[in-house]
Prior knowledge:
This protein is an alpha/beta fold. It folds into two domains: 175 residues, Rossmann fold, CATH 3.40.50.1950; 204 residues, 3-Layer(aba) Sandwich (Rossmann fold). 35% of the residues lie in helices and 23% in strands. It has an eight-stranded mixed β-sheet with strand order 13-12-9-14-17-18-20-21, sandwiched between helices. β20 and β21 form a beta hairpin. The two termini are 28 Å apart. Bound molecules: ligand PMT. The site of ligand PMT has 28 residues, from α10, α12 and β17.
Amino acid sequence: MQGGKRILLVIGGGIAAYKSLELIREIRKRGGTVRCILTKAGEQFVTPLSVSSLSGDKVYGDLFSLTDEAEMGHIELSRAADLVVVAPATADLMAKAANGLANDLASTALLATDKPVLFAPAMNVRMWLHPAVQRNVDALRRDGALFVGPDEGEMACGEFGPGRMAEPARIADAVDRALSGPAAGPLAGKRILVTSGPTHEPIDPVRYIANRSSGKQGHAIARAAAAAGADVTLVSGPVALPDPPGMRVIRVETARDMLGAVESALPADAAVFCAAVADWRAAEQGAQKIKKTGAAPSPLALAENPDILATIARRERGRPALVVGFAAETESVIEHAKVKLAKKGCDWIVANDVGAEDGVMGGDSNTVHLVGPAGVESWPTMDKARVAERLVERIAAALAEDGRA
Length: 405
Ligand code: PMT
């Protein structure tokens, strides 16, 4: 897909720089060429020799190098590419780019370029969550920058959370999308979060509370959003479906895990909450398998789970521009969905009838009603993939119309 495309890769100073070597190989494998700027801090993590050997080109590092400037000036360097990728994008590089600083070759190239810039942030979780970094990320997004990641996980510093650089293959997917341009899809450059599947709430090590959701509808929405060019994060409960390609998938088990994963995946331009989250969990989880004693079983005490949709929809800071909930009802579907729309504070509710005879949970088709402030739109029964495509078309139109995100 990247045949003949030229990537200028800026490698910042972070432990994730080692992954950028793999990224160079991945881009070249897909037919692109890579020219690299290695910052002074980046040189602490990878050597110019490894970068040059893998890219098959000279490595640039010094703004005031007479020979470099004579061969290819920094302005030309930043413009000769079809896309600029910053990986790892450190807090420092993003702060400079967001504020127009140009005191080294990397920041100067970022300021001088007239090409799209894709950032793959990588830093400690506390740094990533710091309001100053988030402000810079918001400013860069407003300036039209694209982002891939960061992912959540164990970090080199021993902490856990969002901040880990996206895997090279995922960055290369984002490069493909960015190079295809806006024509690639109505959601190009948008970040979409989707939840899918059931949650499992353990009672003891072998038993759990669950529901019949298969993840088919939620996964179809994630796939449709990715096909429309979005950078998708899918947070999925336990399902038998394979992870859809071309997106970040976070697998979780319980409602509380799902809330954590959703929060870590923000910011997003739109979030679609299709998961069938268990409203309750066992108040106490048995450390061992609960035994039959012959006596009458004691009733199972329940505790209420957090409401993920309401939590995100009512956020004051970092709320996605469009929050879409689902409503699974077995009677008075539209009336109950309207109540949920108001109660949860989301923008739209997609209501569906999950009565046993319709076989929506686990089945391949769905009959939905889109409930929003403007009223109710009932769609004919369709394959879940088509429901997903249509919903994604509506999301793209809403984001474009309001200039949201
Ligand atoms: O997975 P499939 O087999 O394809 O089936 C699809 C589906 C029927 C599960 C799907 O279309 C659907 O209706 N999903 C929402 C299921 C649900 O939990 O509905 P609800 O009415 O109980 O919840 C309303 C909304 O609040 C939902 O967006 C839900 O994700 C959210 N919620 C609910 C409880 C909770 N603790 N946290 C939540 O965020």
